[in-house]
Amino acid sequence: MRNASNPNRDLQTTEAEKHQKRSQQMEDTTTLSVTKPTRCIVKLGGAAITCKNDLEKINEENVEIVSSQLREAMITGSSSRKVLGMDWSKRPGKSGISCDADDFEDQNLDSSSFVVVHGAGSFGHFQASKSGVHKGGLNKRLVKAGFVATRISVTTLNLEIVRALAREGIPSIGMSPFSCGWTTSERNMASADLSMVAQAINSGFVPVLHGDAVLDDLQGCTILSGDVIIRHLAAYLKPEYVVFLTDVLGVYDRPPSEPNAVLLREIAVSEDGSWSVVKPTLEDTKKQESSQSDIPKGDYKSFAVRSTYVFYSLPAVETTVAAHDTTGGMATKISEAALIAKLGIDVYIVKAATTHSSRALSGEVKGTLPEDWLGTVIRFVGKGNRNC
After folding, report:
1. Could you give the residue ranges of the DSSP H alpha helices within the chain?
2. pLDDT at residue 366 above 90?
3. 33, part of any domain
4. Within a domain: residue 97?
5. Which CATH number does the domain housing residue 221 bear?
6. φ and ψ at 105, to 5 degrees?
7. C-alpha span between 223 and 68 (Å, rounded)
8. Where would I find the Aspartate/glutamate/uridylate kinase domain in this sequence (predicted)?
9. What is the b/e burial string over 12-38, where b = at least 16 CB atoms within 10 angstroms of the residue's CB?
10. Which of 42-56, 97-111, 165-179, 182-196 bottoms out in mean pLDDT, i.e. has the lowest?
11. What Å distances lie between residue 100 and 105, 112, 289, CA to CA?
């Protein structure tokens, strides 16, 4: 029977059941286990690491800051603060290549406990949407050409992210889902061999994966989102926590560019897959926004370009998706984060290249959220949640 008081709960539960069934049906061809515990999986949002309105342009400042913050989070013991870069290739404007082998002995980075996944941003999305790669149809010349163009674009970005991390002394290895043999069926994960990821971690490297164009058993091809990749990595690696770095402070009750948008600091996920807002409370929300009447309570919209999630504590949580975004935007991010939280893993969504992202990456905000930390945490509360 459909839940009359919370019609969106049924929708959320149905989606959670679908994801669970898909996970059970997915072929796991991984033959190697990870011998080292994973501390954190990091998602570098495409909008945070690229200039999304400029085709194939990297946000170099953000990438540099985030890479430095990741290095700081990895430093252990009495490691030297001197940065010894691992990008020894000649680059424009650089004079020669230098490497002092002795200095590397003093570098103690807990690098193997981190895994990085990044989105595409202004790389790949244009090529994919223009040719319809996400809809499949490799028998069409345009789709096949778009598949090739999309992979050229996203792997180009992947190389630049790997280089940025390597320049901070992080032993990063780029890995493409397509090249690792990952496939989908009707756009849902069908096969994901994580053996190469496990081997890289066991060897002390930081795997750097990305959203990719992959083959699909039924429709020929599609786009595999970095957010979906993170969920499968989380289920396999079981990290202490997951951090999504975005271009906004966290999850809002509506697009943050709109007036009176409220930052949701804590979202709880219950056993049945439904979600509820813990912070801010309804009273806090009323204080923060006086003109909420423009979104009527119970206005449940379909999951399309403008999606609405109802968290019970707030009238509505809205997300928007850019016209060229073939991965679902923030809607997919929230959905995948909730599924990760159901595994008992806290998920932090925070603005990249800020003190808040630095604190999230280091694990400083685990447990009770500091009042001065700005971001969103999504965590599992199990049975008995007061809002469920």
Report:
1. 7-25, 46-49, 60-74, 125-131, 141-167, 195-202, 226-237, 282-288, 329-341, 355-362
2. yes
3. yes
4. no
5. 3.40.1160.10
6. -65, -25
7. 30
8. 39-350
9. bbeebeebeeeeeebeeeeeeebeeeb
10. 97-111
11. 10, 23, 57
- Decide: 336 and 292 in contact? Cβ < 8 Å: no
d(C-alpha 308, C-alpha 380), whole Å: 21
pLDDT in tens, 93-105: 665 566 666 666 6
- Read off the pTM: 0.81
- For the cut 70, the answer to whether the pLDDT of residue 352 exceeds it is yes
Find tokens 């780029």 and name the residue.
174
Cis bond before residue 370 (omega within 30° of 0): no
Cβ proximity of 145 and 131 under 8 Å: yes
Domain annotation covers residue 90: no
Residues shown for the chain: 388
Domain that holds residue 291: 7-77+110-382
Smallest CA-to-CA distance from 197 within 215, 213, 173 is with 173
One-character DSSP codes across 189-228:
EEE---HHHHHHHHTT-EEEEE-EEEEETTTEEEEE-HHH
Look up residue 207 and give its two tokens.
């795997």
The CA distances from residue 350 to 43, 296, 339, 377, 386, in Å, are 10, 28, 18, 9, 26
- Residue 230's nearest CA partner among 121, 117, 347, 349 is 117
Residue 130: pLDDT band (50, 70, 90) is: very high
Q: Can you give the C-alpha Rg of the chain in angstroms? A: 21
Q: What is the DSSP string of 280-302?
A: S-HHHHHHH-S-GGGS-TT----
Cβ within 8 Å of residue 136, ≥6 positions away: 143, 216, 218, 219, 220, 221, 222
Domain count, the chain: 1
Please say whether the beta carbons of 318 and 212 come within 8 A.
no
Q: Which residue has the higher pLDDT, 318 or 272?
A: 272
Q: Is position 59 within any domain?
A: yes
